[in-house]
Amino acid sequence: MTEEAAGTPNATRSGSVQRQYDPDGSDGLTAVVVSAIAEAEGVRPMDVHSPPLYERFDVTSLGEAFFEPTADDTAPGNTNTVEFAYNEYFVQIRSDGTIQVFQPSDPSAD
Q1: Domain edges within the chain
Q2: Cα–Cα distance between 109 and 64 in angstroms, integer?
Q3: pLDDT one-digit tens code per residue, 69-96
Q4: Helices (H), 20-58
Q5: What number of other Cβ atoms are within 10 A of residue 5's Cβ?
Q6: CB 86 within 8 A of CB 53
Q7: What segment(s) does the record annotate as region Disordered (predicted)?
Q8: How many other C-beta atoms lie within 10 A of the C-beta of residue 32?
Q9: Residues contacting 17, CB < 8 A, separation 6+
Q10: What is the pLDDT of residues 2-45, one digit of tens each?
Q11: How many Å apart are CA 56 and CA 69, to the nearest integer?
Q12: What is the C-alpha separation between 76 and 87, in angstroms, rounded?
């Protein structure tokens, strides 16, 4: 069963902002996610604070699961995806480093 309510990751989506996270780069995963959310909201990253991202999702644990080398010192091989809601946006983070922020579609526009 698929939920179609606003605020759920399975709702209809429109428009997106895409960023690429590089685990070897200088910007941390949280900074890249916040930057993408800020762009979607049309604000500066420093203005994305309500609610704090860590209250919605544990980005640090996701970073460890998706981007840290495995016990045999190899990078994870599968492409996995995690989605979560942040305010009215849907944030999708893929293990290949792709981060997308979607706005829900307006069902009355159909």
Answers
A1: 14-109
A2: 40
A3: 766 655 556 678 999 999 889 999 999 9
A4: 29-41, 53-56
A5: 9
A6: yes
A7: 1-25
A8: 20
A9: 36, 37, 39, 40, 100, 101
A10: 333 334 444 556 678 999 999 999 999 999 999 999 999 999 99
A11: 25
A12: 30
